[in-house]
Amino acid sequence: MIVKPFSSESVSLHIPVLLSEALKALDPRDGDVMIDGTFGRGGYARAILDHAKTCVWAIDRDPEAVRYGHEIEKLYLGRFKILKGRFGQMKELLSAHGVEQADGIVLDLGVSSPQIDDPARGFSFRGEGPLDMRMEQEGPAAADVVNTLEEKALADLIYTLGEERFSRRIARKIGETRAKRPITTTQQLADLVRSVVPRSKDGIDPATRTFQALRLYVNDELGELQRSLEDAEHILKPGGRLVVVSFHSLEDRCVKIFLRDRARTSALISRHVPPREIRQAPTFELITRRAVCPSLEECRSNPRSRSARLRAARRTSACLVIGER
Fold first, then answer.
1. 83 close to 59: Cβ distance less than 8 angstroms
2. Arch. (CATH architecture) of 19-114+221-315
């Protein structure tokens, strides 16, 4: 597949993980309306556009990604449109532009490589930068959370969203440090965490889980994911495909549970009617029974792909129960 070149001095071409697997599951065809709910730097969107004569609507909350998306619009006149907003508002954003249904939706979760690689965005612990992590570049930053959240709440956040077993130790150290001076940079926080968390045998940096937790919290990423999955259930036509690529266990678990529940016939909850008399037909059928992982070759060429997991499902013709989102 040939991707058209883009002349930008600030952005390099982004190659998404599990691209061939995602395209196979999406199966884009001429005339399809496809949604890229997490545009980033457009790797999936451009691959879909080049694969078939589709129309792609993309969504991103990051102003830099939206600016890049406007440049992509010039390359695919009439076939591509970028919308600024959260992918958890997918249904509302698309409806405002007259798009009520789609043939496919792809979600590439987490942060994009350009976000991670830019120290000024504050996502990475590998360089010095402001402790920011805001995808929209609006609202409270990670530094606000670290310096103001009560110590117990901070420990719970790091434990729950970062799955960090040393969360209380980290929160206590943060409390001691911020009492003397605010924690304002990524390097400050990373060094602080490393001072109280032992390095693991697998070589993962001790600061990894804490940074993950803060990023998920600042951007409400799990909430956005849940809302986007529910919106996808409404937007997809019968036979429409949903493809989700996640990068850590919390995201993958959320997707797995949602699709598992929607893919099986379940009794509507009622104390007065026998379950077998009122049933909700499955709204999805699984395309992938298990998560699809990157090949060894892809992991070698792109180490960031190692934790990626892809899940896909096809929308059935079942109607949603009244009262559902």
1. yes
2. 3-Layer(aba) Sandwich (3.40)
Give me the residue spans of the domains in the chain: 19-114+221-315, 125-219
- Select from 176, 175, 164 the least CA-distant residue to 217: 164
Q: Which residues of 234-249 are buried (b: 16+ CB within 10 A; e: fewer)?
A: bbbeeebbbbbbbbbe
Phi, psi (degrees; rounded to nearest 5) at 310: -115, 135
List strands edge to edge, sheet with 80-84: 80-84, 55-60, 33-36, 102-108, 236-246, 309-315, 284-286
Six-digit token pair at 74?
Answer: 């010039």
In terms of Cβ atoms closer than 10 Å to its own Cβ (0-12, 13-18, 19+), residue 273 is exposed
What pTM did the predictor assign?
Answer: 0.88
- Nearest Cα to 283, choosing from 252, 259, 251, 267? 259
Residue found under tokens 């045998």: 201
For residue 193, which of 220, 218, 225, 166 has the smallest C-alpha distance? Answer: 166
CATH of domain 125-219: 1.10.150.170
Q: For 112-150, write each residue's pLDDT tens digit.
A: 777 777 777 878 888 789 999 999 888 999 999 999 999
